[in-house]
């Protein structure tokens, strides 16, 4: 099995400048308003097709709300629970909307404000909504606002892969100089976290803000959203189940690596090939890895390859919000040690 292409390459043949995904949420389904919502969208001169009714899986809701989940400083601490309560096992309807290059902006104006009480007359939420942000906040739940449409072409690509499945045809100044290091469960269980961080520090990067945490399911889903969206590249494995088995409820260690522009590429080269048997000597996976893609495929699981570092500045931003919480931006500008410190002296976050 060859390495998967960059995320997004699987979804071909669709011009997402002109296509958007419509998600009729569980409250629209429960209130019998799906036909009304889709008729309103078609009445605005937008072509609606490929309607599909389905039961939402937890990972789909996690990926759909990944920007909120990876920015917990702005949202309630129990946001993952609220999302699960609203979506997991609930019926939703999705459809595709086709129009001109302004399709995304047109649809967002048509559906109206997030809070139905603030949505103007003539919008879907303004005319059909029966909830409010105030009521939702008081009830410890998500606001029921009937419908979502893709924000822009990039969101449409992600929404399409999330709700329809890939293969169907029809960017950060602070983070240029820092990367999130994720020492995976196998590194923790084999006692290799210190060794991994020492290897990274030896490159000249400053390693700090180490933290041990127990992984929540949503964190694994947000972190590996591309595997979930492009999961048809892995027909031999149930990717959502593999992620939950590998990560949920298990311990990982995270740390920050600080350096100069180019840090992301430097660290990815240091890690080596994702299959430890193909990683070169001198790389972390090549020297410390004890698993193989062949074994993982045979056992229908994810390969155990010890460590992840952020691919680029955008990934570092997402990784930071996922594993530390976006509210900890002080870690991005904190004073750093003047030299790398040994593993037993790396500062740990207070918990």
What does this structure look like?
Belongs to the NDK family. This is nucleoside-diphosphate kinase. Residues 21-171, 176-333 form the Nucleoside diphosphate kinase-like domain. Pfam families: NDK (PF00334). This protein has 2 domains: 19-163, Alpha-Beta Plaits, CATH 3.30.70; 174-215 and 250-345, Alpha-Beta Plaits, CATH 3.30.70.141. Helix 3 (58-64) crosses helix 12. The two termini are 41 Å apart. It has helices at residues 26-30, 34-43, 58-64, 66-69, 79-87, 103-111, 124-128, 133-139, 153-163, 185-189, 193-201, 217-223, 225-229, 239-247, 263-271, 284-288, 293-298, 313-323, 330-333, and strands spanning 19-24, 47-55, 91-98, 147-149, 178-183, 206-214, 251-258, 307-309. The chain is of the alpha+beta class and 351 residues long. The protein contains 19 helices and 8 strands. The longest helix is centred in the middle third of the chain and has 11 residues, at 153-163.
Secondary structure blueprint with pairings:
Elements: E1 19-24, H1 26-30, H2 34-43, E2 47-55, H3 58-64, H4 66-69, H5 79-87, E3 91-98, H6 103-111, H7 124-128, H8 133-139, E4 147-149, H9 153-163, E5 178-183, H10 185-189, H11 193-201, E6 206-214, H12 217-223, H13 225-229, H14 239-247, E7 251-258, H15 263-271, H16 284-288, H17 293-298, E8 307-309, H18 313-323, H19 330-333
Antiparallel strand pairs: 1-3, 1-4, 2-3, 5-7, 5-8, 6-7
Organism: Streptomyces griseoviridis
Cofactor: Mg(2+)
Keywords: Kinase, Nucleotide metabolism, Transferase
């Amino acid at each position: 099995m060859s390495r998967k292409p960059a995320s997004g390459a699987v979804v071909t043949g669709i011009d997402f400048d002109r296509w958007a995904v419509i998600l009729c949420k569980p409250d629209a389904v429960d209130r019998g308003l799906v036909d009304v919502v889709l008729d309103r969208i078609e009445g605005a001169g937008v072509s609606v097709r490929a309607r599909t009714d389905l039961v939402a899986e937890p990972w789909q809701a996690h990926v759909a709300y990944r920007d909120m989940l990876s920015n917990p400083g702005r949202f309630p601490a129990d946001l993952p629970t609220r999302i699960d309560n609203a979506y997991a096992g609930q019926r939703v309807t999705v459809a595709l909307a086709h129009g001109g290059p302004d399709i995304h902006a047109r649809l967002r104006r048509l559906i109206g404000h997030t809070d139905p009480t603030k949505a103007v007359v003539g919008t879907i939420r303004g005319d059909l909504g029966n909830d409010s942000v105030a009521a939702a906040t008081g009830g410890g739940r998500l606001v029921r606002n009937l419908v979502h449409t893709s924000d822009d072409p990039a969101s449409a690509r992600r929404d399409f892969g999330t709700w329809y499945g890939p293969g169907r045809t029809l960017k950060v100044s602070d983070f240029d100089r820092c990367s999130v290091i994720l020492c995976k469960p196998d590194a923790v269980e084999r006692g290799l976290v210190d060794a991994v961080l020492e290897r990274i520090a030896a490159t000249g990067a400053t390693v700090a803000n180490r933290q041990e945490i127990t992984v929540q399911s949503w964190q694994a889903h947000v972190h590996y959203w591309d595997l979930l969206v492009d999961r048809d590249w892995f027909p031999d494995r149930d990717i959502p189940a593999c992620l939950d088995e590998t990560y949920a409820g298990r311990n990982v260690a995270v740390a920050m690596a600080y350096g100069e522009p180019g840090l992301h590429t430097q660290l990815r080269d240091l890690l080596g090939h994702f299959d430890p048997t193909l990683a070169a000597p001198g790389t972390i996976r090549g020297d410390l890895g004890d698993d193989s893609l062949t074994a993982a495929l045979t056992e229908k699981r994810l390969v155990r390859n010890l460590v992840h570092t952020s691919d680029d500045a955008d990934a570092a931003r997402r990784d930071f919000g996922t594993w530390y919480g976006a509210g900890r931006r002080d870690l991005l500008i904190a004073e750093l040690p003047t030299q790398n410190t040994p593993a037993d002296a790396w500062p740990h976050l207070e918990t």
